[in-house]
């Protein structure tokens, strides 16, 4: 499976997603590793098996084994952190002053360039809807030298990948052609 096969499976009403996927797959604002890792981490966060398989198949040759593991780690750790910190942000109170007491070692030692890991964490946090994490990771990548355009590209990837996952899940539930 590949990005092309994903595009073929999208129903006609999702033509904009097809177009966005094509343009983002060829985007040059991010390094090849940044783009590939953003796609992989976003696919994992979008929680659709077909999307994940297609995107990993498409980008695993671009990523070193360490970078592929880091993209998976970004999705995993943000899957936990986004829930915890979204709670902290929503209820306010004393929780923000309390230590999280959750292991997050991979954030400090992701095995690849920290900036790339932070970018992937930002994309996953956008999908998971954690404002506190989005703000934190966006600040880190901007301070690390990424431009607003590069940040926007990563979030556009996350938005498009998530939209494709939602569309394929809906098409499958509705029994639409190409969804299986």
TrEMBL record:
Domain of life of the native organism: Bacteria
Domain Carboxymuconolactone decarboxylase-like: 94-174
EC code(s) of this entry: 1.11.1.28
A single GO BP: cell redox homeostasis
Gene3D superfamilies given in the database record: AhpD-like
Keywords: Antioxidant, Disulfide bond, Oxidoreductase, Peroxidase, Redox-active center
Reactions catalysed, as given in the entry: N(6)-[(R)-dihydrolipoyl]-L-lysyl-[lipoyl-carrier protein] + a hydroperoxide = N(6)-[(R)-lipoyl]-L-lysyl-[lipoyl-carrier protein] + an alcohol + H2O
Protein name: Alkyl hydroperoxide reductase AhpD
Active site: 130, 133
Database matches in PANTHER family: ALKYL HYDROPEROXIDE REDUCTASE AHPD (PTHR33930:SF7)
Molecular function per GO: disulfide oxidoreductase activity; hydroperoxide reductase activity; peroxiredoxin activity
Species annotation: Gluconacetobacter liquefaciens (Acetobacter liquefaciens)
SS bond partners: 130-133
Function as written in the Swiss-Prot or TrEMBL entry: Antioxidant protein with alkyl hydroperoxidase activity. Required for the reduction of the AhpC active site cysteine residues and for the regeneration of the AhpC enzyme activity.
Family as reported in the entry's similarity comment: Belongs to the AhpD family.
């Amino acid at each position: 499976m590949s990005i092309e096969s994903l595009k073929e499976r999208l129903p006609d009403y999702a033509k904009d997603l097809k177009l966005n996927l094509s343009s983002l797959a060829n985007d040059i604002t991010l390094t090849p590793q940044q783009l590939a890792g953003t796609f992989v981490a976003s696919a994992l966060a979008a929680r659709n098996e077909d999307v994940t398989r297609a995107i990993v198949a498409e980008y695993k040759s671009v990523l070193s084994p360490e970078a592929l593991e880091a993209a998976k780690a970004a999705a995993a750790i943000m899957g936990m952190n986004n829930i915890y910190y979204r709670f902290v942000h929503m209820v306010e109170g004393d929780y923000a002053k309390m230590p999280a007491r959750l292991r997050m070692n991979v954030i400090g030692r992701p095995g690849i360039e920290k900036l790339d890991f932070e970018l992937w964490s930002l994309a996953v946090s956008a999908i998971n809807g954690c404002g506190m994490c989005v703000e934190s990771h966006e600040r880190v990548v901007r301070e690390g030298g990424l431009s607003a355009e590069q940040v926007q590209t990563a979030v556009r990837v996350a938005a498009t990948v998530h939209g494709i996952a939602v569309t394929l899940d809906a098409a499958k539930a509705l029994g639409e052609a190409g969804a299986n």
